[in-house]
Amino acid sequence: MFHFLSRISLDLNAFHGIIPSEVGVLQSLEVLNAASNELEGSIPKEIGNLVVLEELNFGTLFFSI
After folding, report:
1. pTM, whole model, 2 decimals?
2. What is the pLDDT at residue 15?
3. Counting beta carbons within 10 angstroms of the beta carbon of residue 2, is it exposed (0 to 12), middle (13 to 18) or buried (19 or more)?
4. For the chain, what are the domain ranges?
5. Could you report the average pLDDT of every consecutive run of 10 residues in the chain (65 residues)?
6. CA atoms of 9 and 32, how far apart (whole Å)
7. Residues whose CB is less than 8 angstroms from the CB of residue 1 and which lie 6 or more positions away in sequence, other chains included
C-alpha cells in the first residue's frame, strides 16, 4: 500500500513501541525522520532494504543493542 512512499516524518509525536520490521518494504523511501519519540528495542535489520534512503534521523531515541 505504501510501497511508493518517499518521505516519512514522524518526529515529535511521542510514539511508543518498536520500529516494525515492515519498514523494509518501503523501498522507495528517501527520508525517514522519527526523532524525539519514545521508541525502544533495536533498529530492525530490514532497514538495510531501504537502498535509496538518503536521510535517516532517529535524533534523541535510545535503542538497545
Report:
1. 0.79
2. 85
3. exposed
4. 7-57
5. 85 87 93 88 91 89 54
6. 6
7. none
